[in-house]
Amino acid sequence: MSESNLKNMNDLVSLSKRRGFIFQSSEIYGGIGSCWDYGPLGVELKNNIKESWWKTMTYRDDIVGLDASILMHPSVWKASGHVDEFTDPLIDCKKCKMRFREDKVDTAKPCPNCGERDSFTESREFNLMFKTKMGPVEDASADVYLRPETAQGIFVNFLNVQSTMRKKIPFGIAQIGKVFRNEITPGNFIFRTREFEQMEMQFFVAPDTQKDFFEKWKEIRWNWHVGNGLRESRMKWHDHPGTELAHYADIAVDVYYEFPIGWDEIEGIHSRTDFDLGRHQKFSGKKLEYVDQAAGKKYIPYVVETSAGCDRSLLALMCDAYRIENEGDKKNERVVMKFNYKIAPIKVAILPLMKKPELDNVARKILNDIQKNYKTEYDVAGSIGKRYRRQDEIGTPFCVTIDYDTLEDKSVTVRNRDTMEQERISIDRLDQYLKDKLQF
Ligand code: GAP
């Protein structure tokens, strides 16, 4: 049997739509640029990724969770540097008015959109934050921003969390939430969008200890991606040279994944020094120091941040899981999403062999038992072969088939997604069988 990987992102876009993972936002109106909706399978997959992250990052006694609001006091973004620094250099084509990121086009060449020569304007800095108005009055004092990273919600709550949870440094605060960036060149499906979810953790440490924690977090974060099923052969580190560092970081590294569009970032790990807390202390006038009673000193903590994109992780996991077996061999070709069982959106499919009440009765009883513990699909339509292929395409690890023998021997056939092997299992052992196989 031969096996090949995803070669073209369009194949994944089409599977995502066909099988209910991801739809274009507002599709019936022609869609809206770079916004995507997660369908019934996409939302399961995304929730499983978030749960895996939440467990790894907060089921430990030195990290606690937070869910801060998206809208924050506008001074937060002045203090954080986003108002002045969170910009991309932008140029316009004077003829077709198309906008480009200056670093993404060769200005010596014609406009990639309309072909006009010497048509570009001077470059200017374009702020990536979305601005909106708060309250009924439309003057400048009502301006607020949709947060472009979740991190600031954590920084401004540092003292609230530290004091209420009586945390001693080193400790971390973790958060998952939506963020918004008015990207100039979004695209490549859900790789770069204007609304996405981040899974971020800020680890507060004593000054001059950040390098060791940075190394420790690199290892934990790498292993998280591998534990979700990403193949290490398709991952690498990308160090940020000094010129690439964000305005807040003194060391930074990205986890890169080999997408069909090339290598790119799925997560950033940054040593943010005491930049953020220091700036918030200055701008708010509130002391954000930590009192280290054991050492008898006060200081503004340093921060090591891990910042993963939920949608990017999901895209990497979908690209990685996508396999074509026996490509080109019409009879034996199949597309299988070889998701790690932990993140597979549907764990079990219940398939009565035929649409007959006697099979349906037994199958529904089994369904009711199994779906108490696992996300389960029930499918009676079409030939059993077609139904297996459909479950392969959505990555369901186990299919349970109920046939006429089931009525006699009280057993079912369990088919494994990866090996396609089938086992006969008695109904009263099915629960334990799935428990053993779906351990994570
Ligand atoms: N708080 C640090 C921070 O926001 P970042 O490198 O700008 O760092 C972190 O973003 C992660 O968020 C990236 O590694 C990526 O996974 C995700 N991300 C960033 N911009 C994105 C976009 N436009 N669309 C989807 N995901 C994005």
Write a short abstract of this structure.
With 440 residues, the chain is of the alpha+beta class. The protein has helices at 9-18, 40-58, 75-79, 82-85, 151-156, 158-164, 210-227, 275-284, 310-321, 357-370, 384-394, 404-409, 427-437; strands spanning 3-5, 22-24, 36-38, 63-65, 87-92, 99-101, 124-127, 131-133, 143-145, 171-180, 195-205, 235-239, 251-259, 262-273, 290-292, 297-299, 302-309, 322-325, 334-337, 348-352, 376-378, 398-402, 411-416, 422-426.
Structure description:
With 440 residues, the chain is an alpha+beta fold. The chain has 2 domains: 3-72 and 145-319, Bira Bifunctional Protein, Domain 2 (BirA Bifunctional Protein, domain 2, 2-Layer Sandwich), CATH 3.30.930.10; 346-437, Rossmann fold (3-Layer(aba) Sandwich), CATH 3.40.50.800. The chain is 30% helix and 28% strand. The protein has 13 helices and 24 strands. It has a 7-stranded mixed sheet with strand order 4-10-11-17-14-13-12. A 5-stranded mixed sheet has the order 21-20-22-23-24, sandwiched between helices. A hairpin with a 4-residue loop joins strand 15 (290-292) and strand 16. Helix 2 packs across helix 9 (310-321). It is globular. It starts with a strand and ends with a helix. The model has no long low-confidence stretch (mean pLDDT 95). The structure holds glycyl-adenosine-5'-phosphate. Glycyl-adenosine-5'-phosphate binds at residues 149, 151, 181, 183, 192-193, 196, 198, 200, 265-268, 305, 307-309, 311-312. The site of glycyl-adenosine-5'-phosphate (GAP) has 19 residues, from strand 11, strand 14, strand 17 and helix 9.
